[in-house]
Amino acid sequence: MIDHDAVARLGLNQSEIDGTLNDLFGQRQVSTIYHPLNQYHVVMEAAPEYWQSPDTLRNVYVTSPAASGPATTGAKGTGTAGTSTTGQRVP
Question: Is pLDDT above 80 for 72?
């Protein structure tokens, strides 16, 4: 459950939270590798040890483009793309 009052107090919105959770628990195409005959899509996802436990949510930080410049989302310490050291932990 998301504490919407805390989200508003931190200057975040629901779409930023949804995007962060999708980045962590979904799959993202991050690149394409081109070879003479084929192309390969590079897909990034969290390692299984991070999506198999709800305790992972304790380490998820959400940043707001208004608060920190370009949008960056990610989970602290998971090694996922877009990991941010600045951000707001959503209660």
Answer: no
